[in-house]
Design a protein that fits this description.
With 192 residues, this protein is α/β, with parallel strands linked by helices. It is built from 5 helices and 5 strands; from the N terminus they run H-H-H-E-E-E-H-E-H-E. It has helices spanning 10-18, 23-46, 52-76, 138-155, 168-175; strands at residues 96-104, 110-118, 124-133, 160-165, 187-190. Strands 3-2-1-4-5 form a 5-stranded mixed beta sheet, with helices on one face. Helix 3 (52-76) packs across helix 5. The longest helix is centred in the middle third of the chain and has 25 residues, at 52-76. It is elongated. Residues 112-178 form the RNase H type-1 domain. One of its GO terms (molecular function) is nucleic acid binding. It holds the Pfam family RVT_3.
Length: 192
């Protein structure tokens, strides 16, 4: 059955199925195909693999997280600009603060994500920097950088109460009570 598609370029297959699907179903198919490709690379590089059910569930959760983030960023784009201070400001005593940023260059198909966690004296407690393959909007890149910083803090069991980002839409989306569902008093400030 699938042998007829063996020599058909992937883009042609996607164009063919996109004409028969709505946008949501097409996004699901694309993310599942991407997860299969990712799993294939995992097998080739690390001799590890996810089973089919876990792979599909992981892909659908990834898509759901992306859609929630995209929706939050779109909703917050029309919100007023939050006032900001210039320069790095220390956090309150005995408080850790996360600063995150993304580096995006036109024409390249990857972005750089970075985050640093400092104490109130400005001393570095933890840091992360990593490239991410793909083309992303500035706001989504900033959101991914913030996410990496938060994941770093979680891995290291660090109790963050404050984060600074330089993207208004990201700060507004995170501070939007409909978007964030947590008990902690967590503040995101704009830093330029």
């Amino acid at each position: 059955m699938f042998s007829q598609f063996k020599n058909v370029p992937t883009l042609d297959v996607l164009r063919g199925i996109s004409s028969t699907m709505n946008r949501i179903d097409l996004e699901c198919v694309c993310v599942i195909l991407w997860s299969i490709w990712w799993n294939r690379n995992l097998i080739a590089q690390k001799n590890e693999s996810k089973n089919a059910t876990d792979l599909v569930n992981w892909a659908l959760e990834f898509l759901s997280e992306f859609q929630r983030t995209h929706q939050a960023l779109s909703a917050s784009a029309s919100q007023p600009v939050v006032p900001f201070k210039s320069g790095w400001c220390p956090s309150p005593i005995d408080t850790l603060k996360l600063n995150s940023d993304a580096s995006i260059r036109d024409g390249f198909h990857f972005i750089g994500l970075g985050a640093v966690i400092r104490n109130h004296k400005g001393e570095i407690v933890a840091t992360i920097s990593k490239p991410l393959q793909g083309s992303f909007s500035v706001d989504l890149g900033e959101f991914l950088a913030l996410r990496e910083g938060l994941l770093l803090a979680k891995r290291l069991n660090l109790n963050l109460k404050l984060a600074e980002v330089d993207a208004v839409a990201v700060a507004n989306a995170v501070n939007n009570s409909e978007f964030v569902n947590c008990n902690a008093n967590f503040i995101i400030k704009i830093q330029r």
